[in-house]
Specification:
The complex is a heterodimer. Chain A is built from 28 helices and 23 strands. Chain A is of the alpha+beta class. In chain A, the strands form four sheets. A six-stranded mixed β-barrel of chain A has the order 4-5-10-7-9-8. In chain A, β8 and β9 form a beta hairpin. In chain A, α2 packs antiparallel against α4, α5 crosses α14 and α24 runs parallel beside α27. The longest helix of chain A has about 40 residues. Chain A is extended, with a radius of gyration of 37 Å. The longest helix of chain B has 26 residues. Chain B is α+β, with helices and mostly antiparallel strands. Helix content of chain B is about 50%, strand content about 15%. The chains are: A alpha+beta, B alpha+beta. Chains A and B meet through α1, α2 and α4 of A and α2, α3 and β4 of B.
Chain lengths: ~900, ~110
Amino acid sequence: MMSWLNLNLTRALTLFGKDSLDRELREELHCHLELLIEEGRLEGMTYEEARRRAFWILGNPEVIRENSIGAATPQFFDHLLVDIKLGLADLKKCPALYSAAVLMLASGLVTAGMTLVIASFWHKTPSYGPGGQEVFLINHYAPKGIGKWNGFEAHFVPNTADFIRWKTGAKSFSEICIASLLPKSVNATLSPNSGSTALSASFVGPEFFHLLGVKPYLGRTFDPASSTTDWRSVVLSRKSWQTLFHSDSQILNRVIAIEGTDRRVIGVMPEGFLFPNNSDIWLPQQPSSSNPAFQFHGWLVLARLAPGHNESGAEAELNAMGSEGTSLNRLQPISDIYDQISPFQFRLLLSAAGTVFAIACFSAWTLIRVRIGARQQEFAAQVVLGASPGRIVRQVLAQFFLLGSAAWICSIPTSILATWILFLWTRRSGEGGWFFAPKLYMIEVLVTMALAALAVVPCGIFPAINALPGRSLLRAGVLRSVLHERFRLGSLPLVFQLSFAIVLFVGAGTTFRAFFLSWLSFSHQHNSATLLAANISFNGADSAITKPEVNGLYKKIQEDLASMPGIISVSLTNALPFDGTPAVGNEVQIEGSSSRLHTDLAVIRNVAPGYFTQLSIPLLQGRPTETSDREANVAWISNSLAHSFFHGESPIGRRIRTVNPREVSHWMTIVGVVGDLRTSPFSNGPEPTLYRSYQESVNSETVLLPQNILLRTTRSSEQYRPLVAARLRGINPSLRIHNLGFLPEGYWRSINVPVALTMLFAMFSAIALLLTAASVYGAQCHWVAERRREIAIRIASGASRRHVLGMGLRHGVTILLLGLGAGTPVAIATAYLLRHWLWIPVELSTFISCSAALACIVCCASSLPLLSASKIEPVSILRSE
Amino acid sequence: MKTKRAELLPGTLDFMVLKTLDAMGAMHGYGIARRIEQVSRDLLRMNQGTLYPALVRLEQKRLISSKWGVSENNRRAKFYSISSAGRKQLIAETENWDRIAGVIVRLLHDPQGA
């Protein structure tokens, strides 16, 4: 094997030393001839006789040299060079057509390459990855038998007691640590002379960074071995370091005041690392069961499996250690929350890009076929002169190889340009938590190169077979004739292309429609321009404020804000419906049954009077919220929850309660049923919701203070922003206001990636549309060129121009119908799959409108060559023939 | 009566070149060709030019090596010599040839016929 490799390597290298070998052979043969002439002279011949004899004995030196060099070099390369030269010569003859083919292939390559880069960015941030597959979140999941909704399996986050129990007892994990469930807005004073800045802080255990395997960009992270030495330190995100400290290289050991406590900066994390809460800073936290502030606190609990342990074994151990109520402890891969794109979305994106790439290949195939058709006479002449069919196939493949290479080279600058556009876009919308560096990604270069190679073989082989002259008695030629004449193989790439295009259009159309309708519904239903939202909390320890004080404060806030001119209504809620935070399901139960079958999952929202009116949630049964409800145990349920529990019966007067063991479960009387509220276009159903009085947040032992205020204004809410902030500060100086702004801001942030996906699908559709139109146009030009004589004879025989147009259109429509017929089942299957992601059902109208759009494009592209064909002068055509 | 000259059997030229170089030491192309003709007593019909592709092939296989030198008529000539890999190859080829030739001889001279 090695000697074979060595031999071929030597032969390949000889290609580069061909000239030197030729020179040596020339000299050697000259010497040989001289010796032979000398020999003849010694035998008494004249010089001329001796020379003739020498040539007769040796042979033609030119032929010997050629044979020797041929024996020393691989023949394949020689032939390839010749084929490439022939290919280049043909490219020069028809530059427009070949440029179009190159652009088509390049557009497919750029789409596929860029998509892969974007998808890998969303799927996993590789350079700051969580250090392998063995890092999990530990969650309590609802017991089996409780339904799933909204595409999520409802779960509860563990509390401090759970964490301590697992940390001290579980043997399946090498490390366990906590991270705050939600970000906390903190006030930071960056220097003694500067004002305070609000930052999003994540509280994490000291083992956090070590467990994730993330290395800092500057300095160090918290020391996992010590829970006390770093407790007055802070780690910054790269973004905060750049924006707040202007990338100061002396940032380490600098002291900044956070919530009045001096903390030393010990490190800066790498770019893009914002886990778990899009964090600006990370603060060390070690919960303790003796500290009442942490007693009921919910955490993200992160754990790394110990060597030799597996997921199922670890779950069994956790469940053996006990869990809350009836819930089960389960491990959730950290990628579920780390990735910004679900596996379904990831596969969807790659499939869509793959479809565009396939369409680009089919387009190029169609155009090359047009050119091959025009070169039939040339190939026939080659066969007559002794060229083998393999030689012609190789020649066409070499030409496609050239096109593939050109497309790949074109794709590189285009990719760089696209990366820059993405960079600018992501920098503008930087809240999304992903950041695109403006550079050429090696993975993209390699993938596009592999795809270009992949495109060359299948897309080149069919035009190559097509190139074989029809009169050839060779099997391939006969096969080609049979396939073309009987089965119209020539139209196959176009049929494939149209079928792929309809799948893409239906998928993109469904996604876009869902997004558009959702936004329309959101804007219309909530009249978002006049809505203002703010999150409020208190300085210092929340527990220091008594419940009566809180009650009084909320009452005062509502009354004061409502009295402001231009404010129509004020309401309070524990969680905003559009803030982008995924809703967590809680178990709820109706009175009269202890059976688990009568338990379901619902989102719990605590609301103040006016909440339903403000968000335009219709009251379907019962009565609206009233001020007197503050102390009463009353509840409202959403229509979907009512349907799930009562199956058409009236729920008014029935009693309901939560069965989450962390909350005081008391029965609440259902006094109303309200409409469902869709919080995102990218979910497969409404959230079943239980609304109760906002007082529950205050009465509850477990839920701490932060509340959200919702305001409905008479005019655009933008102008009320500073007035509301000033009024709130005036009510209580220790009141802290965060995220005062439009309600849709959070909504947009929450659907950042899905919106980008929708835009990408729309872009893919546009590319596919252009490619399809171009290849249909090219194919129709070919059809017309092949039938110029026939058309001329028909017109000369009295056929009208309309007849000629109809003849061509019939050909185009046949291909269109074949393509639609082949693509429809796949398009329906795709639309069915999309139901997992989108909340709207797939409607026939989407399918029909997408098909109609495609049909329009195909008909227009088909008609243009036919219009010119119908105007030809039959006499001139027939005379030239 | 004119002696009938034999055609060179395909694949045997490499073998003959190796044997010649093994027996005679370093030689140039002309020398090798003359030596083969001498040994065959002019019975082998061979175009001397066919030697050169064989020499290039053998050199690429590292069975022979070459060095530029000066010929007997004071011209620059390339001298070929057999390598150790070439010698091994020659031994293997000789054994193989003997075996095949033996079989053919036995087959042709067996009184029972084939």
